[in-house]
Amino acid sequence: MAGRRLPEKTGSRQTKVPLPNPSPVTALSVRSLRPPFRIGIDVGGTFTDLVLADADGALLVRKTPSTPAQPEDGVFTALALAAKALGRDAPGLVADTALLVHGSTVATNAVLEGKLAPIALLCTAGFRDTLAIRRGMRADPWDHRAPFPAPLVPRHLRLPVRGRLAPDGTEWEPLEEKDVLDAAETIGASDVEAVAIGFLHAYADPAHERRAAALLRQALGEHPAARHIVCSSEVLPIVGEYERIATVAMHAALAPRIARYLAALEARLKALGYPRQLLLVQSNGGACTVAQACARPANLVLSGPAAGVAALAALAGPETGEDFVAIEIGGTSCDVTLMRGRRVELAESLEIAGHPLAVPAVAIHTVGAGGGTIAGVDGAGALYAGPRGAGARPGPAGYGLGGTEPTVTDAQLLVGRLAPGPFAAGALTLDATLARAAIERRLAVPLGIALEDAAAGVLRLVTQAIAQAVEEITLRRGLDPRRFVLVAGGGAGPMFGCEVAERLGIARVLVPGLAGAFCAFGMLAADIRLDRSAPFSALLDGAAVAAAAEQLAALEDEARKELTGEGFDAETIVVQWEACLRYRGQHGSLRVAFGDAQGLRAAFEAEHEARFGHLQPGGVIEFVSLSLTASASLPRPSSRRHTHDAAPHETRRAVWFFGHGMMAARVLDSPPPHGMPLAGPALLALDTTTVVIPPGWAARTLAAGDILLEAAR
């Protein structure tokens, strides 16, 4: 693979190691997989998934329960399982690994659980309460009583500093260094672990923020906060005052925990003999180095789910098309993503636990519907499912790990869609007696209905919730879901795919060959990616386009230097320029590919009409900001996994299907051979997932090893 290299890390010295081009493998025993290996590890809320690709592109999958208290333990348990399967020890496997990409919920869980580091904020005098005032807008305008989350920084640690810049960067008032030193005294006497610096208009000139950071580091000395000082001008040079301050505060609040986690992870990998750089998946779907992640830790809040973007692109082809709506359902949640023409929409911001973050992120709509989603009966006597989940510990009742509340997995077990015994490639054992007891005690008896009816009711509710999540990113945006192929990924996704599709009028469902480790596989298909932006305000005309091009060229030069400085081959770097535009007077903006004035207007108007259903003929358009994406290619595995020539083993059992009730169904332990369709009712009980094929649907295995399900016409 000419030109595709990964930096090797040996102390501070880096060299470039070429990797071979992966080729498809159709029949291969696990023990014959050969190095160099590439590994993707996704630490989810319930399971930690590992996908290993060998030199020829053959794939190995392993799952293990996550360890929320020590997330890195799940990583090394998964590595040990993979090493055992290959007949090696963990050090031998790691030493022969040329690429290790990791996605984790550490940042996500820290925000959701409120386990963030105590921080201080240096702000411009007179703007101490920006974090508390917010924007004054609510997601639900009718709910004016629900409180906003507490600001990330308490008021006594929002420390005002005199000094003022104009919007164009002109200094109106010099930085008052005494205020910075006074702030250092306050911080030094506190338990603060990190400091955010967000001065007014610092995006136009970072001089005040940089000087304040230098003074703080000198004054704080060995204080822990001196190690984590984050300037808004370095991580987020944008105009929006509240969004910029809120985001730099989140970067600072996550920095200590992320730095500790990654340091522990790298130390254990180094002890096993891994000599290269660990890469991490960001919210934008691309990978980054540990140094980049520590500098911008809030970019990791969608680390795991965003990896599915690269996996989606790998599924596109002549048999499947290029327009997908994907449901990735794990143990905790369902993440819905839209792909049109091999492109997944990138949002300019996201919100997590009520905190807005102005970081580039894959546009993902998430609902609390997964295998571990808890069901119950509310005070009015109605059945509900979600959004609470049982997590990895204690998990569903059927796991036998101490859980007592009924979940979706328990319901699937009770109606025959899952079988008692080994589950998730042997990572757990399902106990039908425990699942039955939980559903009877918490659902069937309070509702006064049969056990199977209670379990079926849970599945109906969850299926409807997933269908509504798909409608949220299709119908509510003016898109007809029937023109898309529904991709059912995750360990639980293929159990809901066809029935969700039926509710939406979708005729084809695609189950990836690695559905149970969809995001971990996506990590191996991701490229290194940097997103950079800069404010730019001007009316759209030729002169403004020329000035914007100069600014983008400067951003590109910086991005290329950063990537080559990390050891990535300059020949593999691809840069895309974009501009955020709006009609004059609008609040929001739209991102389009950069071009000349005429091309920008045409692209903006086309996107505006597609998004909002109208445009302003001859309307005045203005620039809001400029952005670019710089990516460096990494070696990618084939989308095929190793298979075996042996015919599937078939049994039969009673299974519940929507609209049909309990009925006899064929159960196969591997996909049907290529070219031989399998008609429902049937189940494919695979290593890491179960594919439900209802009556009226038929499944066939594609050349790449994926499974396409089609409704009878």
Could you characterize what this model shows?
- This protein has 713 residues and is α+β, with helices and mostly antiparallel strands.
- Among the domains are: 374-461, no CATH class; 528-632, Dna Ligase, domain 1 (2-Layer Sandwich); 650-711, no CATH class.
- Strands 15, 16, 17, 22, 27, 28, 35, 38 and 39 form a 9-stranded mixed sheet that branches.
- β33 (650-657) and β34 form a beta hairpin.
- α12 (408-414) packs across α14.
- Mean pLDDT is 87; it is low at 1-28.
Short description:
With 713 residues, the chain is α+β, with helices and mostly antiparallel strands. Among the domains are: 374-461, no CATH class; 528-632, Dna Ligase, domain 1 (2-Layer Sandwich), CATH 3.30.1490; 650-711, no CATH class. The strands form eleven sheets. Strands 15, 16, 17, 22, 27, 28, 35, 38 and 39 form a nine-stranded mixed β-sheet that branches.
Question: Could you name the key traits of this structure?
Answer:
about 725 residues, alpha+beta, Dna Ligase, domain 1, nine-stranded mixed beta sheet, six-stranded mixed beta sheet, globular
Count of DSSP strands? 39
**Mean of residue pLDDT?**
87
Helix percentage: 25-40%
CATH architecture of the domain at 528-632: 2-Layer Sandwich
How many separate helices? 18
Oligomer: single chain
The chain-level structural class is alpha+beta
What characteristic shape results from the CA principal axes? globular
Distance between the termini: 44 Å
> How much strand content do the residues show?
25-35%
Calculate Rg over CA atoms. 26 Å
Largest sheet: 9 strands, mixed
Fold-level CATH name of the domain at 528-632: Dna Ligase, domain 1
User: What low-confidence regions span 5 or more consecutive residues with pLDDT below 50?
Assistant: 1-28
CATH top level assignment of the domain at 528-632: Alpha Beta
